[in-house]
């Protein structure tokens, strides 16, 4: 596979994070600036299909926001500068947009006039322009050559960001970008096979290759797995037998015209539409189908006394997240990080009293 360019979003920590997101290992949200009068936004939306390019840019930001902390805005599978680089073909497949439009977006946002992203290493993929490009990136050979020299004094790359929301704020604050590390390409299958089982459900007879073939069979897929799909699978392997059995049952059910699975006349829930989306949210999919099966069997899960929401927890939620914050009936409906944060707030309030 040809070498792909390495990109990094400028000013990630200051622009796309807040005090809550910085505390989370994985985020299900991202902060996006809501001003639309900057020179970068104007230049991008002035391009042919400019608002479409802006939509692709936001989706790229959302993709990077799913990386593990600390996030630095590198356009790679794991968010690390030496991780597997995401090219236009792979991004186009993930985001359901033409690869040519992804290339145009990357060319535009990393140009000197917009400067929301920088080319760290490699050669840009040639953008396929539709219509007559404006001067914002008509000459991509000059705009996309970003200087990445590391000085002895600062050990950080020298960049020339545009007068955009990211570049301008970083120049004002005098902040440097993270140092560049030469990338290492690829993920070895041998290393994935040697991953430790952290779930206590190890099935030594069901190998990584068996798992890939099994998941491919759910979608009737014949083509090889991408490096991104293999990387995402590395967080799941090995998969417990009972989880495989549940998903195999769910993905064998017929569906109605709206895509809902049907079992003995009962309308259940929808399945994931692609292999990558299933691998990326496998545990959530297992929990969803467990709930569907409980409802199908008419079983009501037994509630633990310590799982019920208490007045102390409700008060802590409102102190932390505002008076309008949603307070669920069960603590377990909150993710583990939120539960830990709220429990600490309850303890702090108890000690202060």
Mean pLDDT: 75
Strand content: 5-15%
Helix content percent band? 40-55%
Distance between the termini: 63 Å
- Tell me which oligomeric state these chains represent: single chain
Q: Top keywords for this entry?
A:
mainly alpha; 4 strands; 353 residues; 3 domains; two-stranded antiparallel sheet
Walk me through what this model shows.
- By secondary structure, this protein is mainly alpha-helical.
- It has three domains: 6-173, no CATH class; 189-296, no CATH class; 305-352, no CATH class.
- The chain is built from 15 helices and four strands.
- The protein has a two-stranded antiparallel sheet.
- Helix 4 (88-95) crosses helix 5 (99-109).
- The protein is globular.
- The chain starts with 5 loop residues before the first strand and ends with a helix.
Strand-helix topology:
Blueprint: E1 6-9, H1 12-16, H2 39-45, H3 50-65, H4 88-95, H5 99-109, E2 117-121, H6 140-143, H7 165-173, H8 189-193, H9 208-218, H10 227-233, H11 241-250, E3 260-263, E4 266-270, H12 275-280, H13 282-296, H14 311-321, H15 336-352
Antiparallel strand pairs: 1-2, 3-4
Task: Please summarize what this structure is.
This protein is mainly alpha-helical. It has helices at residues 12-16, 39-45, 50-65, 88-95, 99-109, 140-143, 165-173, 189-193, 208-218, 227-233, 241-250, 275-280, 282-296, 311-321, 336-352, and strands at residues 6-9, 117-121, 260-263, 266-270.
